[in-house]
Amino acid sequence: MSPPFQCIDCGKKYKTPGHFEKHQRSCKAGKRSFAEVLEVTKRLWEVKKKRRLDVERIQNDDEEMPVGEHIVAERLDVERIQDDEEMSVDEHIVSEAREVHENARQANSEPSLAQRKAPRAVGPPRRYCQPSDSEDSEDDNVRAVPGAAGSSSRSAVHPSGRHSQSSDSEDNNVRAVPGTAGSYLWLKPNDIRRLYPVPSKLDVNGIRRSYLIAGDQARLSHDPDPVLTIQDLIAAGIPLIATCAERPKEAPLLAGTSSYGPFQSKSAFEVAEWFWNSNSKSFLEFQKLMGIFKQPSFNLSEVVSTDWTQTFHSLGANKDDLSDSDGAWICDDGWKKAKISINVPFHHAMSRPGNISHQVGELHYRSIMSVIREKISNADDATQFHYAPYKATWKPNKSSPEVELYGEMYTSRAFREAHEEVQRLPNTKINSGLERVVVGLMFSSNATTLTHFCEASLWPCYLMFANESKYRRCEPNARLCYHVAYFQTVPNSFKDKLRERNGGKLPTENLFGFCDREVYQAQWSILLDEELRNAMKDGVVLMCPDNKERCFYPRILTHSADYPEKVSAAGLRQYGLLPCHRCHVSRWELSKLNSPLDTERESDQRSDSQQHGLMSQARKKIYDDKYAVAGKPMDDILKDKSLQPVESPFATLPIPQGFSISSALVVDLLHEFEIGVWKRLFIHLLRLLEAVGVAKSLSAELNARYRATPSFGRDGIRKFGVDASAMKRKATRDYEDLLQCAIPAFELLLPEPHNTRLMKLLYTCAQWHALAKLRLHNDLTLQLLDYTTTQLGAQMRTFERDTCSKYQTVELKTEADARARRQGSGNELGSSERRPAALGVFTIKFHYLGDYVSTIRYYGTTDSYSTEIGELAHRIPKQWYPRTDKRSFTGQISQIERRQARLARIRRDIQGSSSGSPTSHASGKFRSQATVDSSYHIAEDQNDVIYLNVEFTFDPDAPEDPYTTDFLPKLKQHILSRLLLKYGFLERDLPPNSWESIVLGDRLYRHKIAKFKYTSYDLREKIDVVHINTPQCNIMLLNGRCTVGSREHPYLYAKVLGIYHANVSFLGTLPDGSKLVPQRIDFLWVRWFDQVQEGSPEFTLDHVNLSPLDVADSIQFVNPMDVLRGVHIIPRFTKGLMKHQDPKSSWIKDEKLWTEYAVNRFADRDLFMRYQYGMSVGHAYMRDDFPVSKIPSIPQDFDFCILPSTKPPPKAPKGKGRAKATEIPPGDHPSEVVSLNIPAPAPTPASAPSAHIQAPNTASSSRQQIRTPSTHQLTNADVDSEDSDREVDGAEDGEEYLDDMDDEEITACEEMYAQELMDEY
């Protein structure tokens, strides 16, 4: 398949439109060619224009001609003569243009534009003319449609028979339209609609949306977030035309029916709905059932008389499996079963060679087009389904330029390019006159175990729609991850069939691996059926809930999967020499993340057309020439690219610009970083703690620090367990929490200078994770992410070189035990001896971190396509599994899925389609305007009363309470200042000591909880809960003394000691002479934190300490409206507890106070963005008069710390034995450092290699040793023993991947990739 974008002037080829457009703007050959041809082309068009005017002048002098079909025939003759004359007159001009254009191209072998241009048609064929009423049009691409206001044409035939010129002679949107008295408007063969960019006005947040609207569409017919006005459309130049006549409408699904599906009554339906939607026998579910029984319309006899066996069968069965009467209510195609058949090649060296077709199982799947129809017809989801994408830009203030925003998938560049490509398709009978809509398909697949104590597993494939908001897709209860298939693996019985076919001899593992890949591709071939391909090519017309027909074009945008499935989909070898599916980076160079040597990422990308050609060549040798699936013949073709001989169904999708599965396999933050890079780093840090000091029990100290770390937020930092360092069934969220709180926990556990190096690395990891997981990016944050990626690569390599190499580390006990379980057979375990272990972080997952910036720019933020969405969706089939018979559970789970979906559809039909606000998302409602003041909520009850005359009665014998010193004067002064500010006055407008006129009614009312609403960085409405006497009692406020250029910190931090309200009266008069009525005043009693400046601000957290009680303003009162949100404060454990604890107070809960605290800006993404000044869209206070954050840049003398290549030495030729370690060629010496004219570690002399290279027990020695192939690989008949450079996937690489999984994930992986990955280890 040729690349979709090629420059016709210089011949360069590009895979992405962005690079192609950039090249077009700077192509010198194109500019020269255009300049030289321009003059010649101008002469050509002048002659044509003169000829046309002469013909029209002659025809206007003729007498009136008849109308009808004679006019059509005569017009054809006139145009043929006209074209012949133009061609003869302008022949020398065209020849000259071609000659000049060819000379401009010089030695380019590609044909010129003039050469590749199709010959000019002599006249329009008859199929482009409107036939008479008695004739039927036979053209599928062009048809006559009713004329509309604003339509134009180049030429029209008037009833008089004379030709008239349209006012818009240059309009390309010409179509054949019937006029009056038999007149016709002519349709061009390649009819392309005119597209108009329509920008909206800036909203209150400074956001502008730019749509691309077709000229015949006039306006957006449906927009969940309406922003465009009629004035915007007129300013963009869109003619306000009348819409075309609607086609006959089809009745919506279940419209007008009063039935309850297979149920005879409403009572039976509601009981069934409760049963299938209930997953546990909880008291809440019991109350729901009682609520059904208490309904006045409930009839128990109707429930009892129902045949539940037959009813539930009908509820989950396909329509074709039921009678016409029983299945009349079903509106979907249900689940299908297809036989999975593959051709198994037996090579010529086997006893019975040949290609044999084998059936390896059944695939349970749903038609993707059926899912699309069901989605489009859903009235509830239609209100939030985006038909037209847009580009979002943000202008923080008047003086700043607009930057692009990256968030939702329907605003991504990938979606917009697909939308533009569909809009520019020629008009056909199917799409003519209809709005064209791209249906963005997002797939996610990953295997999961259904229980904890058995090996039952399921491999679901989920389908999500990019037209919907990610905030809804990410919520599991929204059920927007549609089950479309349950993939099957090769069963164990398949081995018996192959052994029987091979004369009783078991074939090689390479053949089984080949069959695994063939089964995977065969199942995708079933899913990507002919109906879907036709819809991709020609579109499909569907009736929408708004009673309008639209033409929908499905487009696959992303496919989320873990690494083993990615390489299976892309046709790569597992952990091959070139393990990346996007570029040709070597497996020995994976540590070069964002360094100057990391050039393959941009300059050496994979070519799909080249790879498909190599795969086809290899498959021809396998199936036609009877070669083995592995061995030297296959390596000669595929090894250089690390490919497998697969035939991908994605390569043949009918997309005009081609489809690249490698590009669609997007990054995966969950597997690549959270349980990939970070998990490996965390485990190695535990090894280092054991190596540094066993006697000091550093691991126990680490556990104690994590236990003392307070929780934060509802979905933020959870309370850590007793043993945080124990690797016992931790979920991904646990590793995320460990990272977010790692800096205070690991501080000073390692000696200097390793501690400083580790603190910088942990800060960079946390910052990279926060940036990569943002839900709303812009150009500024992406620049910061790119800078952080460079820092992460350099600091990780520095930590490996300068810290990890200084200690001899071994496996953790849990790692050794897990390896023993994997290596054991039956009830016998393998060796649990703790082996040497290195950092081992430089895997393919580390390399993938450099692709996040480009992926976010093209597909939007990572939360749209993270595999975390699929992992959360696994909860649903796990809830269904106990309802099955535990044997044939795949088919039964598919029936349960249909039952729940159909019950929900019946419920919607009963209640009618709800409006469904598009702003009610799971993570908070959308706020149309970000405000500085945060609203709050404090309860209105007055149950907890504090009597002031009792609390503040003077007792000479009682010790003085420093907390309540000047309590009442400070409170009254605070209340008076708020009252004056509320009515527009200042304190100086009143006489001194006016606060004494404040009357509190001798009582205060105490509360324990206050809720603060705030607008997050991504314009969502969030709530923080402040609970006194708990760790979640800290708040942050704006510092009024901080301005642009000042050294003041922009935020103030405080600990809430109490939440109160008082019924306040003012006995005095205001400056204008008016009186105040009594009113309720809410206030917070707080103790301030003081800033502690220490270290470099770039890689350190903010450090604070509690203000001493003897300071006058240490305790004050705060207006709740001034609170921004809650903040996560962690003790700085290295500073210890305060030597002198504060005295006890009856107003304050007794607790241990620490000397210093760290403000954890990484607790959640919104808190992190509060410190990226000027980059946050939702934080309105940052736009004006606020410190501006400058994005740091990599300095010229930056140490990238390029590590030596880990490539092992080449094997000795056959018959000469293996090369000794001292015979490594100089260019491959492991201690050699590449010179880049940048500071790098000093090279170690060849005579004295570094200690961690030579020592057999050091951390990195295991990676430097030569790997030996396993026994079955050495004796494999399909492996050429003479191929000394054969690429073998050894156990070491498998262990790298398995170390990232727990036992449950390993079991699922064994089910998915048993023959390909697991059997080798």
TrEMBL record:
Ranges of biased composition (kind: Polar residues): 1255-1276
One Pfam short name: Plavaka
Domain of life: Eukaryota
Biased composition (Acidic residues): 1279-1305
Name used for this protein in its record: C2H2-type domain-containing protein
Extent of Basic and acidic residues compositional bias: 598-609
Assigned keywords, A-Z: Metal-binding, Zinc, Zinc-finger
Region feature Disordered, mapped onto this chain: 100-176, 596-615, 1202-1305
InterPro entries for the chain: Plavaka, Znf_C2H2_type
Molecular function per GO: zinc ion binding
Cited PROSITE patterns: ZINC_FINGER_C2H2_2
Domain C2H2-type: 5-33
